[in-house]
Write a structure and sequence with these properties.
The protein has 377 residues and is an all-alpha fold. The chain is built from 15 helices and no strands.
Length: 377
């Protein structure tokens, strides 16, 4: 909106400097807008949630120390979403289709999380949607994103080939050519495309959701991941950087840099209130939407595999749950004292603040490693 007003309308007759044309300039302002918007609305949001008695219910089988957190305002993810969407609409080029795919996808997963949170509040228990219900809604949202991407692909605006870390010449195509060549195997290509898309987006969404168990843990890791995605989106949309790093270049992807910058700023602002001891929790409305947002951006810029490193701690948290459940069902024994992984360290006697900071350090190391792989190919 401001991009259109300040650059396309007012430049050069009113504003002599074409600053608003540059992605870097608008990304910086989007980040600051998101940060200050979150900081400004935070106290009002916390007060309103308390007035409406929208408080967190603690799982009965979780760490006993967490029961003192019962009643802390939740659904703070609404604040995060507002702080992402508003700056994106203000500073990005609204003609860009990638931006709308990212916004629509993020809001869809946020709506699923909001419905889940509201169900928990109404039942006054830590039980909202069933696992099957939540998964089905997430799959439907991912399928819609897939159809949007296929529409962009048909218009020549989206590539289905992927960048692969460490391998410059290896670029697998999600729409496998040999399957598309035959009418009999034609559906298999689209089946594989949608299955992979669901795995990435739904998996990432749930990974952040599982990690959101300690004050500031998930939102701090989101700052790191979204910061890394800001760099990746800028490189993917920049002709010289993309050519130098041999990336699949998407000219319009540079506008996603503004979206990622807004996400980083919003996460920083929310951490101010979510830091230990937390004044507000993001709830599923925050964790599901943030996880999906990071994954959708990775899908758009063809860095689906690199997402494993960008969100490395989220992946480890998810694997700990999978391994714990599989081990208990197959052997009747647990691998960890408690899952997800952060609860295991709590059970070992680590202080909550120490776990959070150490996980942040691990996330930062993995995110920096993911950026180095751009050249190590």
């Amino acid at each position: 909106m401001l991009y259109w007003l300040l650059y396309e309308v007012m430049y050069p007759n009113v504003i002599p400097f074409p600053l608003f044309r540059y992605v870097t300039f608008r990304t910086a302002f989007a980040s600051m807008t998101a940060l200050f918007l979150c900081l400004l609305l935070g106290p009002w949001m916390i007060r309103k949630l308390r007035e409406l008695q929208i408080g967190q219910h603690i799982r009965e089988d979780g760490p006993q120390a967490h029961f003192k957190k019962a009643g802390t305002p939740t659904m703070g993810g609404i604040l995060i979403l507002v702080s992402i969407v508003v700056p994106s609409l203000l500073w990005a080029n609204l003609r860009n289709p990638y931006l709308w795919v990212a916004l629509i996808g993020t809001l869809m997963f946020g709506a699923i999380g909001a419905y889940d949170d509201w169900s928990k509040i109404q039942r006054r228990r830590n039980l909202g949607l069933t696992g099957k219900q939540k998964f089905l809604l997430q799959v439907l949202a991912a399928l819609l994103i897939g159809f949007l991407l296929l529409g962009l692909h048909a218009m020549g605006l989206y590539s289905t080939t992927m960048n692969v870390p460490f391998f410059k010449q290896l670029r697998p195509d999600l729409l496998i050519d040999r399957w598309l060549a035959s009418p009999l195997t034609y559906p298999l290509a689209f089946l594989f495309f949608f299955a992979f898309l669901i795995f990435v987006i739904v998996g990432s969404s749930n990974a952040v959701n599982l990690t959101d168990g300690l004050d500031g843990l998930a939102i701090g890791l989101t700052i790191i991941a979204s910061g890394a995605m800001t760099v990746l989106t800028y490189a993917s949309g920049h002709a010289q950087f993309a050519n130098y790093l041999d990336l699949v270049r998407l000219p319009g992807a540079s506008e996603l840099t503004i979206f990622c910058g807004a996400m980083t700023g919003a996460a920083l602002g929310f951490l101010w209130y979510n830091a230990h001891p937390a004044d507000i929790f993001m709830g599923d409305v925050g964790s599901l939407s943030l996880g999906s947002a990071i994954a959708i951006v990775a899908v758009l810029i063809k860095q689906e595999i690199l997402l494993i490193f960008v969100g490395g701690v989220f992946v480890l948290e998810t694997l700990s749950v999978i391994l714990q459940v599989a081990s208990f069902k197959l052997r009747g024994k647990r691998i960890f004292k408690m899952a997800p992984l952060h609860h295991h360290f709590e059970a070992l006697g680590w202080q909550e603040s120490k776990i959070i900071v150490r996980f942040w350090i691990g996330g930062l190391i993995l995110a920096l490693f993911s950026l180095t792989t751009l050249k190590l190919r």
